[in-house]
Structure formats: structure tokens, C-alpha cells
Amino acid sequence: MLLQIKDYDSGYQPSKTIDKKVIGIGGFLVNLAFQIPIFTVSEKTMDMLAPPKKVLNRKCLTEMLEGYRDVYYKEEGEYEKDEEQIFNVFSKGETFERCRKDLFYNVGAFITHIPSNFIDQIDVPAIIISPDRIRNWANSKRKTGVFVNLMSFVILHELVHAYVYNRKLDRSKFGYASSVIEESLADATAYSHFPEKDRVTNLSELLLDPSRPPEYTSYVYWAETFRVVDPLHVLLLWRRGVIPVMYLHGVYLPPPNLDPYYHFFLHEFYHVRLFLKDKDLANELAAEILLHS
Question: What torsion, rounded to 10 degrees, do the Cα atoms 240, 241, 247, 249 define?
Fold first, then answer.
């Protein structure tokens, strides 16, 4: 059984190698991969269906997070316990908005609607992929043999977006923090499906390239978490619109029915602030993701 990968206008010939790769490592995402059509598209079509978007500027973000550290630590390694002071830094939605200065061109996208000015019909929801942009990404580090892995990675990344999609849920209430949370989760979940040899030899360097937006490179926050915690548990929370609060500050509080081994992951910080409102909590978690990346 093969995936529904079809070329729309990119000239790319779908590869059985990529099909086998995604099916072989896709885990819980595989069933969804058989249900959602995947189209390879030209860069022009990609920009029509998933227009370039404003993302976080790394310099602006660094300066902002340095301010966060100033109120977060008394000195290196010592936790500042003035919660009200910490809360005030990231309780406002515009915290991230003011650093959205860079334009990012998508290499893939999960789409749920078609713009009115798009003449042809594509059944949605669907995943669209730009092989040309993925090839350019692979070539940016002059790595050979990485195209199949990158194509597979992007497909898995977009399948995560599809998995957590809930048409009845409005995540705009979380502000831009929702993008930080979801893009980092999607990257980390896709990354976690690859064998260690693929991660080390040709994925890590490309995924951590400073030219990639911080929303994506911050996957490393979750990547470490997912060595101990099942990504599915986090995604199920996010799909219901629940901020994965138990992972705030790198702390994992397991449900009672899970193996006590997960308590091992309780480190560095020892509590979670549950008194925050949803939007504030989203901003707080997004800040933590970026800070610990």
C-alpha cells in the first residue's frame, strides 16, 4: 500500500523510496498518511496556497530572551522564585509579535482551504510539498543523499499539523505563541521518528541551521523531552486545545497510570504555575521552549 503522493505542477516524480521511508518510520502518523492526499507543487503554487509568513527574527528574540533570563535567574544555575516578576515578562500577547520581522517561504504546508483566486481544485484537507525548496535546503550544506530523508521529514512534519488539527478549535486566542508551540512540536515529533543514524548524519545540522526560524529550530526543547515522553501524549493534549502545561520548565508530571520511570524527567524546576489564563500560559510555554533551545 502506497501513500497518496501526486505531482501537481512541480515536475517531481513521486518516489517509492520516500513512500517506504514514511511508512516504515511513521508510527502513529501512518494511518493518517494514507487518508490525506499529498501534492508536490511548484514554488509559485506553494506561495499561492501557503503564502510566505512573518516569523521570529533571531536577533530580536535573543535580546528579548536575555531580558527573560535577567528576571529568571539570580545567578547562573539558580532559579529566581519571584513568579510575579517572571510572569509579567511574558504575559502579554505582543511579546512575540514585536519580533516577527522575517519573511519565511514554506517548504511544505497542511492546508484546509483554497484561496478564492486559485483556479484549479485541490481536495482539502491536503498536504503540499515543494521538492525544489527541499532540494535547495539539502544542497545548502552540500550534503549528499539527504533529499529522501528531508522529503520524508517534511511529510511527517505536516502530518503532525494534520493530526492536531481541530476545526472546532480556535487557537488564535493563544496568539503567536501557538505557532511557536505547534511548529516546534511538529519538527520534534517528525525528528523523533527517524533512526539515530539518520538524525546524526544528515538531519540535525540541517534542522538547526540558524537560517531556519526559531519557531522550528526550537524543536530541540521537545526532542530531549521525547527521549523520555511519548510525543503522542503531548499531541493529544494540544489537539484538544490544552496547553501542554506539565512540560513547562522541562517538568513532566505523569498521569497516575503511567510508569513511575517518567518521574525521572522531573529535573531543574520543581513546580508548574497553574493559575495562568490560557493565553498567558501559551506565551509562557512558548518562551520556555525558545529559552531552553
Answer: 180
Instruction: Tell which wins on pLDDT, 245 or 20.
Output: 20
DSSP helix/strand/coil, 176: coil
Domain encompassing residue 272: 5-291
The helix (run of H) or strand (run of E) holding residue 89 is helix 83-89
Q: Work out the burial of residue 146: count CB atoms within 10 Å of its CB; fewer than 13 is exposed, 13-18 middle, 19 or more buried.
A: buried
pTM assigned to the model: 0.83
Cα(288)–Cα(293) distance, integer angstroms:
8
3-state secondary structure 100-138: EEEEECCCEEEECCCCCCCCCCCCCCEEEECHHHHHHHH
21 vs 176, higher pLDDT: 21
Grid cell listed for 156:
511527517
Distance separating alpha carbons of residues 76 and 62, to the nearest angstrom: 17
pLDDT score of 39 more than 80: yes
Q: How many domains does the chain have?
A: 1
What type of residue is 99?
Answer: C
Residues contacting 70, CB < 8 A, separation 6+: none
Please answer whether residues 219 and 203 qualify as being in contact, where contact means their C-beta atoms are separated by less than 8 angstroms. Answer: no
Separation of CA 217 from chain center = 9
Q: Nearest to residue 141, comparing CAs of 216, 207, 189?
A: 207
Q: What is the CA radius of gyration of the chain?
A: 19
Q: Which of 176, 245, 244, 246 is nearest to 214 (CA)?
A: 176
